[in-house]
Amino acid sequence: MAQSSNGIMDSVEINGYRGLASYRLANLANVNLIVGNNNCGKTSILEALGLLVSGGNISVISQIGTSRSENSLPYSSRKYGRMMDFSNIFHGHSFKLGASFDLSANDGERSLAVSLEEFDESTSDAYSEIHDSDESDSDLFAYVMKIVTNNKEEAITFPAREDGIVFLGRSLGLNRNRYPATPTRFLTVDSFDPAKMGEFWNTALEDRREAEIVEDMKILVPSLESMHFLAGRMPSSGILLDLASYGKRVPISTFGDGLRRLLALRLSFIGATNGLLLVDEIDTGLHWTVMQEMWKFVVEIADRNNVQVFATTHSYDCIRGLASLIDSRPDLSSQVSLQKMTPSLKQSVCFTGEQIKIAVGQDIEVR
């Protein structure tokens, strides 16, 4: 993770990634809320951040495409191994020679560059894996997709076709990563992942942190006394809550999507400890009356676990909840920022914690 002296990214630059020809975020805090009109690039910023801190891991690009249904059918074959469609990752959906994007944080302290260059079998890592005695294989490939981290001369390279299909090889797999990655979790509206929730709950048990999680979950269920994951069950139906007001343990589904969403958010912090948490539409499934409490636990848990948070929203209630938190807890003001994306500008407009409170108090539109 690109880090400043206080352990967080304080600025990010994105050039040529998806719909972002050139964009910068500055004066970042520990918890950052990104707002703006539909299709202005909020989710793309989260993706770029995850990709930057991944250390050039090709699997992150693949996961991004899958979340957008761009890789709905992963390609594979016995000979070529894993193949994925990466045709949409460059600005303007331009998958052709010379296309590129680059990401950096803290004025180049950490960087990542991805480019399409002319195919050269001698420099393509994956080609050396899939190549055999059939010399005609090279006719399949038009480009090499090159990934360079921190301006190093050594690059990760993959052969690619003109239609955007990138050949990842077999033993390289989707987890190839030559550089240290930052612990990162990306929570989307559709990413309720039962397996991951169970995995993070197990980690909480190993670290003796389950009581801490139960205490945080009391935001929505004040009478909550304990939580229990049933073995062999999906968390959507296999999480039981023990409440003081009930005579028996009840499934989490009894309390609707909001509580499951909050639990997924809380458990995601465990997977992002000392790293990065990215949350698309953070307020989804939560009633406006709990927004102040939701932000309180996000800011406090982020600080406790050394996690930098980037979240998006369309909701003014979500922003109002953040302003209310700052009003009641001015000591948390320096830990938050609101980054407003405006299409006509190449840099987000930053509102500090105090400015968020003032803007909401004066009914100034900041979305």
Q: What is the share of helical residues?
A: 25-40%
CA distance, first residue to last residue: 28 Å
Question: Mean pLDDT, as a whole number?
Answer: 85
Strand content range: 25-35%
Low-confidence stretches: 1-6
Continuous helix count? 10
By secondary-structure content and strand pairing, the structural class works out as alpha+beta
Keywords:
disordered N terminus, alpha+beta, single chain, six-stranded antiparallel sheet, six-stranded mixed sheet, 367 residues
Describe the protein in words:
The protein is an alpha+beta fold and 367 residues long. The chain has ten helices and 18 strands. The protein is globular. The protein starts with 10 loop residues before the first strand and ends in a 6-residue tail after the last helix. Mean pLDDT is 85; it is low at 1-6.
